[in-house]
Amino acid sequence: MAGQWMMILIGVSLGMTCLAAPTECHFNSQALCEYEGRHYSLGQSWMEQGCIQCTCLHPFGVGCCETVEQPVDFPPWCQVRVESVTCKVSLVLTSDPRLPCLPGEGNSVDPSHGEMNMKLAG
């Protein structure tokens, strides 16, 4: 019975932590509630590199969830860029990551080929 309550507590805590519709979560019962030299107590959260939010579930361990939902349906000439500080996701052109990639109707020409390249160059 105590094991069931522990799993419910962990599930509720992870669910509350991951409001950003995480793509993956994990729980480590051996992990310490510590990150970059700072100690955390029960219920406290912190953001790790890679946009992973962790919550201290002491004495049970640490639960972590990805907070960035990566797009999966975009043209091959686009790539996903995740800003590590803000965890903001955007699509950029593979040929020039400084430019946004705007997939959709009217933007169906691969900019690395043909007519669109001539318009950009001239």
UniProtKB/TrEMBL annotation:
Superkingdom of origin organism: Eukaryota
Name used for this protein in its record: Prostate-associated microseminoprotein
Subcellular compartments: Secreted
Molecular function terms, GO-annotated: cytokine activity
Keywords: Chemotaxis, Cytokine, Disulfide bond, Inflammatory response, Secreted, Signal
GO cellular component: cytoplasm; extracellular space
Pfam family, one: PSP94
Signal peptide: 1-20
Annotated family: Belongs to the beta-microseminoprotein family.
Taxonomic source organism: Pangasianodon hypophthalmus
Cited function: Acts as a ligand for C-C chemokine receptor CCR2. Signals through binding and activation of CCR2 and induces a strong chemotactic response and mobilization of intracellular calcium ions. Exhibits a chemotactic activity for monocytes and lymphocytes but not neutrophils.
Predominant subcellular localization, coarse grouping: secreted
Biological process annotations from GO: chemotaxis; inflammatory response
